[in-house]
TrEMBL record:
This is Elongation factor 1 alpha. The gene is EF1A. It comes from Giardia intestinalis (Giardia lamblia). One of its GO terms (molecular function) is translation elongation factor activity. The keyword Nucleotide-binding applies. Keywords: Elongation factor, GTP-binding, Nucleotide-binding, Protein biosynthesis.
C-alpha cells in the first residue's frame, strides 16, 4: 500500500502502516529481476504496415 498524495511507503517504509511488513515501492521495484533474453533463438522482427 502506498499514498501518492502524502508519499507514504514510496521511498521509505511508513510508520503510519504498522500492519504492513513488506518493502516500500522503490525497494520492491529495485528488487525485480529482468527476464532472461532468448539470445539462443532466431531473431524475429514484427513488421507493420
Amino acid at each position: 500500500p502506498t499514498s501518492g498524495w502524502t508519499g507514504d511507503n514510496i521511498m521509505e517504509r511508513s510508520d503510519k502502516m504498522p500492519w504492513y511488513e513488506g518493502p516500500c515501492l522503490i525497494d520492491a521495484i529495485d528488487g525485480l529481476k529482468a527476464p532472461k533474453r532468448p539470445t539462443d533463438k532466431p531473431l524475429r522482427l514484427p513488421i507493420q504496415d
